Amino acid sequence: MVSSWDSLDLVDLNDHNISYFDYAHANADDDFIPLVEHILNYDLILFVTPVYWYSMSAIMKTFFDRISDLLTIRKDLGRLLRGKTMGSASCGSDDVLDKEFYYPFLQTARYLGMKYSGHLHTYVQDNDIPEDVVAGIREYIHKLKT
Fold first, then answer.
1. pTM of the predicted protein model
2. Does domain 27-145 have CATH number 3.30.565.10?
3. pLDDT of 95-109, one tens digit each?
């Protein structure tokens, strides 16, 4: 349950140096681990991404690939994600999104022992946000608060 929206924190992955997953972990000194340590301060982690070629953004995919580090060299951090809530949201040009889009979010949450709050898809039409999208955002926020 989200008790206060005063403590929301926006993290733009583009502001961080996150290298691609590397089996040799030669990238252990980039921003990934410090960023994970930061987001562990929150009970709810909402991943928001544009839809690019039917998938999440490349930087978000890189972030999700690096979660493998939390299963190998930093299991201590990976265990701290258990019980937290993960949600996902997307924005695209189409009003419909295949359910396969949010499958990586759902399965990652399950694998890490996190609760998955579901997915919200938004879209823009004629440079405007349609009323059904606004209603969907309100509904999703209400769901997150309860």
1. 0.90
2. no
3. 989 989 999 999 999
